[in-house]
Amino acid sequence: xxxILDKLKxxxxxxxxxxxxxxxxxxxxxxxxxxxxxxxxxxxxxxxVQSKRFGPYVxxxxxxxxxxxxxxxxxxxxxxxxVVVKKMEQLFxxxxxxxxxxxx
Length: 104
What we know:
By secondary structure, this protein is an all-alpha fold. It has one domain. The protein has three helices and no strands. It has helices at about 1-30, 55-70, 75-104. The chain is elongated.
């Protein structure tokens, strides 16, 4: 269990740095009159927060990981782990997609 939690924390550090960079990029785009969207993820993406920036999503995921740590050894650990992994995957994919779309 601990190795899973350690990996999640390592990935959170990567996501945090990427989210900071992406949020700066989104702020610049917004200043240029681009990026006119209301939220990054759709309502059914599994996140409770709704934001135009990645930071609040990363913060929610960090809280989910802290909660997951408290569930170690309980019957709900695996189901909560699946939720955390899904959110993490969505963040990685979306951040990568944004980076790729800005290269061209």
